[in-house]
Amino acid sequence: MELTLLGTGAPSGLPRPDCPCAACAAALGPDARAATALLLDGTLLLDLTPGAAFAAARAGRSLTGVRQVLLSHPHDGPPVEVPAGLPQPGRVPDGRELTLLTGHRVRAVALDAPGTGYAVTGPDGQRLLYLPPGGAPAGLAEPAEPYDMVLTDVVGRPDALAKLRAVGAVGPTTDVLAVHLDHDVPPGPELGRRLAAAGARAVPDGVTLAVGAYEDVPDVPRRTLVLGGARSGKSVEAERRLEAFPDVLYVATGGSRNGDTEWSSRVATHRERRPGSWQTVETCDLVPLLEEEGPPLLVDCLSLWLTDAMDSVGAWDDAVWAERGEKALRERMQELTEAMRVTRRTVVAVSNEVGSGIVPSTASGRRYRDELGRLNAGFAAECEHVLLVVAGQAVVLRG
Question: What percent of the chain shows pLDDT beyond 90?
Answer without folding.
Answer: 79
